[in-house]
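Possible regression after last week's pipeline update?

I re-ran a chain I had predicted before the update to compare outputs. Posting the input and the new output here so someone can diff against the archived version. Not blocking, just want to make sure nothing changed silently.
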Amino acid sequence: MTNTATASPRPLQTVRRRRSTRSVLGKIPGWIVVAVLLIVFVYPLVWLVLGSLKTQDEFLNNPTWALPENWFNFSNYSIAWESTAHYLLNSVIAVFPSLAICLLIGTAAGFALEIMVFKGRNTLLLVFLVGIMIPGQMILLPLFSVYFNLGLSSTLWPLIITYTATALPLTVFMMATYFRNIPREIFEASTIDGASTLKSFFFIALPMMRNAIFTIALVQFFFLWNDLLIALTFTTDDSLRTVQVGLLNFTGQFGVVDYGPTFAAICINVFIILALYLVLNQRVMRGLAAGAVKG
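New output (post-update):
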């Protein structure tokens, strides 16, 4: 009896070891996939940063995989900042006003389509969905003719108007989806208490939609800030170019590409967006969760 009692734990330990080995082996494919994805996404950033520290001679004479000879060569960043500062300012002037207008109109439209009751609201929402399906390339030439005839081609107004118009359908649709998750009884109770529609919108709807607004604002900001086609079409002067168009035309003397300053300018643009996302990451996650859960 004693021998049986003492020998019984050994098979149990063997079974547990086998199970743990199988669980570890089962996780290996997932680890490999994660490692490959990390290499795919992280390696270009590392290569970009290393390239921003190289001189022009290193780009032309050394292999592409060679490390920088001077790890503290930040002169490329000063050159890039001097060349792209006004491009960044143009992007800020074009993107942020259009983003604010788009969020205000989109939030109000989503509130009206989902909270207010009137005939034809489903048809109106369908119209905004049709706006999402229209390719932006189809409207560039007619818009360019309109802006030229109105005398707006030498300003940033074409970008602000076009950015607002192209971002509005998706914003309205996403806002309507978020408002659908808010119980309508809340707004009915506010109406019974004497609150007007504007008060219900500004003092009840907007505070409850704060995370959703941050999420949609960040998504639309990425689309607008990284736009190249619209900015390249409507900016006819170098003083009006946004940062993406400025990076496209980032050349040195006699049209030769200065790779070091170009890489540094791209780094400035990328890390500004990355820092903004890292700061607002938690709000974005909460906003996505709020739009995905019913009730």
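Follow-up from reviewer: compared with the archived run. The domain at 76-292 is CATH 1.10.3720.10 (MetI-like fold). Marking as no regression found.
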